[in-house]
Amino acid sequence: MNDTDKNKIIELIKAGEKLPKEFIYKLFADDEDVFLFWNGRKEDITNIALPFHSIEHIDEPRKEAKKVGDNFSMFETDFRGRQLKGWTNKLIWGDNKLILSSLANGPIREEIEKEGGLKLIYIDPPFAVGADFGFNIEIGGETAEKKQSIIEEIAYRDTWGKGISSYLSMMYERLKLMHNLLANDGSIYIHCDWRVSSQLKILLDDIFVSYKSTEIIWVCGLMGSGDYYPKAHETIYCYKGKNATFNPPQRLGLSSRITKALQKDEIGWFYTRGAESSGGTNFLKSYVSKDPSHTKQQAIDYANENRNQPAWSVWIGKEEIATVFNDNPVGTYAFTQTESVGYPTQKPEALLERIIKASSNEGDLVADFFCGSGTTAAVAEKLGRKWITTDLGRFSVHTARKRLIGVQRELQASGKDFRAFELLNLGKYERQFFMDDLTNGKRKAKEDLYVDLILEAYKAKRIDGHSTLHGSKAGRFVNVGPLDVPVTQSRLMDIFEECCQKLYTQVDVLGFEFEMGLTPQFIQELKEKGVSVTLKYIPKDVFDKRAVEKGQVRFFDVAYLNTKEKVKGKSITIELTDFVTHYTQDDIEELQQSMRAGSKIVIEDGQIFKIEKDKNGIITRTVLTKNWFDWIDYWAIDFDYLSRKEIIKIKKDDGTVEEQWTGNYLFENEWQSFRTKKNPTLEFTSIAYEYKAAGKYKVMVKVVDILGIDTSKIIDVNII
Predict the structure, then answer these.
(1) Considering only CA atoms, which of 709, 676, 642 is closest in space to residue 409?
(2) Which residues cross the membrane (predicted)?
(3) What φ, ψ does residue 560 adopt, rounded to 5°?
(4) 308, 621, 625, 629: which has the highest count of C-beta atoms within 10 A?
(5) CA–CA dist 203, 125 (Å, integer)
């Protein structure tokens, strides 16, 4: 770089102007021959270690309790046949950047290392193909769209807002964290398509520079029009660490369909001659005879006899021969109807089975940090691997939870072993992290700034001179619940008393979490005494300034569920009898004015409507959620909720780990009923649960509605 260049750079910096790219390249010219650069690249990565909250513990009971060494179980179980010790698989809901950082730098890292380290990562990161988090709901013969939440929309904008540069920034930090977390003798597989494959390959080479790499061509069937080469494959990049496990996948031979087609001369056949060769000829040799005198049947037999030879890096499935015979690939790595869960980006289990078998052994720990429908975890469980899987999308995590319970049931029915899994998130610690980020760690100002932030998002005005009330909106007063703990019944009583003193009759209480004892009956009692209290959830979206400034944040009322309990001796059954939600996604009046002739499905105030508008502007509404149970997708019961405290591990500044009780209890999922694509019906009455001893118990019932939102209730039970 000459003096003229240097002076020009100084002038541009002083003027606050952008440097031309050629100057940037010159500045780094002495560091590397090739430097991977994009606008926004940062070398620093997140290194925070937030504690994980245990939301739910799920373990289908074994047929009978077993001890270590028994044929059925590889770990100790309790009297219910539920796992007591050993690794518990992890389904984690949240931002995978914070999750990866907390796994890599927090106490769970030690647990991972005790299991031999993370031996395999498979990820299927998002592509630029539209919103990543919306999903469809089948209701009343119609399809309603659940739009992505603001936090999910923000994640999408952060990924694609600036095109490929913001995508690379998002992936770079996460891949660096995965590299940190992956065992030295581990492997990583990254599935991608043509939109980002070339850029992602360079990024991966930059991070996994010492790894042996290969490119797998996954032929998944013809797609596209005939005006150009139809797309027939997607790409999976594989990076293998030194001494990493590799069990070569085997060739699958000819499918029965291809064999019959050959025998009937419906498709052509070839043979090759001569010694071993490379490329296409080598590929052909695996399926046909090299002896030109062989009959067609002998060639077919030869192909099937060689089915157990190592496969190449072109994967098509049981019909790999199709590309040879008719130049029309029909990939059979497609998920079957029995495994389909209706998730838009679901990958076939056969594909993941091949990857997991190739690069891990039984008992190894595998991970997928873009969970989707949970295919990686489901296959890992079936193959006897331990797993961690994460996703930001609420619907994704709920879909995976149901699917993994199904796997547990399947293995239980066949007498095979399986592990418990826990549903985790970062909970209040994630909220504290967001607040610290917004306030630059200024703790003195944090509480005031937090209240102002929530009031701004709620579009309420700040008020002074009150002990429990923070703002007002449209004639109603507003209380902002705490950042770190649930809104309690005692807090509501304080609010109620101040409202009575000041003759206020309406108040909205906003909270991230609410104490389980806040029943509809309690709220009704307050109303009958003169104060109408409405409980509303604060969404995580409030921590994004853009969403708040644009007025996009939606608060929605707390839902309620009702049950009926039947106690007989020491047994109890629970019946789900009602569910009330006021969830709102759309504005019907606004939609009716703007829509053209046709129909729309909308969600407003706890109802899903079909709105139809004819060419004359006549509008009709049809309610699709005709019964309360139309809203229920899943419900589960913990018959002894206080039996297990929620203990979290916190890594202190000196590196030691401290265990703390959060004050909450772990939801032990002991019974559940849920809808699947194959079986959409629900049971509304639980099994008869038998208590071992008389006493007072608390039963917790959890409902997940068709939008993936949780609602819970605590029931006091006296067993005599």
Answers:
(1) 676
(2) none
(3) -130, 150
(4) 625
(5) 14
Q: Tokens standing for 201?
A: 């390959």
More confident residue, 4 or 382: 382
Q: Does 603 share its domain with 677? A: yes
Report the C-alpha gap between 319 and 309 in whole angstroms.
Answer: 16
> Model confidence over 283-293: pLDDT tens digits?
333 344 445 55
Of 108-117, 225-234, 597-606, which range is least confident?
225-234
Tokens 């997928």 sit on residue:
368
Residues 479, 373 share a domain: no
CB 692 within 8 A of CB 79: yes
Q: Which residues in 140-211 belong to E strands, given as ranges?
A: 142-146, 182-192
Question: What is the distance between the alpha carbons of residues 328 and 321, in angstroms, rounded to a whole number?
Answer: 10
Cβ count within 10 A of residue 366: 26
CB 704 within 8 A of CB 576: no
Residue in the block written with tokens 């608390």: 698
Euclidean distance between CA atoms 419 and 111, whole angstroms: 16
What integer pLDDT is reported at residue 323 of this predicted model?
A: 37
In 10 A of CB 351, how many CB atoms?
23
Q: Are residues 240 and 295 in the same domain?
A: no
**Domain co-membership, 453 together with 549:** yes
Sorting pLDDT into bands at 50, 70 and 90, what band is 318? very low
Average model confidence (pLDDT) across the chain? 83
> Alpha carbon 408 to chain centroid distance?
19
The pTM (predicted TM-score) of the whole model is: 0.83
State how far the Cα of 346 lies from the Cα of 400, in Å rounded to an integer: 11
Residue 459 in contact with residue 129, Cβ under 8 Å?
no
Cβ-contact 634, 406 below 8 angstroms:
no
Please state, in angstroms and rounded to a whole number, the distance separating the CA atoms of residues 150 and 80.
41
In tens, the pLDDT along 528-564 reads 999 999 999 998 888 878 888 888 888 888 999 999 9
Specify the number of domains making up the chain: 5
Give residue 137's pLDDT. Answer: 76
> Which is nearest to 398 in space by CA: 672, 1, 155, 626?
672
Q: Are residues 578 and 535 in the same domain?
A: no
Q: Which helix (H) or strand (E) holds 263?
A: helix 256-263
Count of CA atoms in the C-beta half-sphere (13 A) of 718: 1
Q: To which H or E segment does residue 296 belong?
A: helix 296-305
- The parent domain of residue 500 ranges over 445-557
Torsion of CA 199, 397, 72, 111, to 10 degrees: 60
Q: What pairs with residue 622 in β-bridges? A: 610
Query: Using an 8 Å Cβ cutoff, are 396 and 148 in contact?
Result: no
Residue 351 CA to residue 334 CA, distance in Å, equals 8
Question: Which two three-digit tokens encode residue 115?
Answer: 């299991």
Q: Does residue 461 sit in the same domain as residue 585?
A: no
Work out whether strand 314-315 and strand 386-391 pair parallel, antiparallel, or are unpaired. unpaired
pLDDT in tens, 150-176: 667 767 777 877 788 888 999 999 999
> Hey, which residues does 710 pair with through a beta bridge?
704
| Amino acid symbol at 71 | N
Residues 238 and 350 occupy one common structural domain: yes
Instruction: Judge contact between 124 and 370, C-beta under 8 A.
Output: yes
DSSP string, 604-628: ETTEEEEEEE-TT--EEEEES--SG
Alpha carbon distances (Å) from 334 to 218, 220, 410, 635: 11, 7, 21, 31
Query: In 3D, which of 461, 463, 523, 468 has the Cα closest to residue 499?
Result: 468
pLDDT digits (tens, 9 = 90+) for 44-103: 888 999 999 988 999 988 766 555 444 445 567 777 788 888 899 999 998 899 999 999
Q: What are the backbone angles phi and psi of residue 133, rounded to the nearest 5°? A: -120, -5
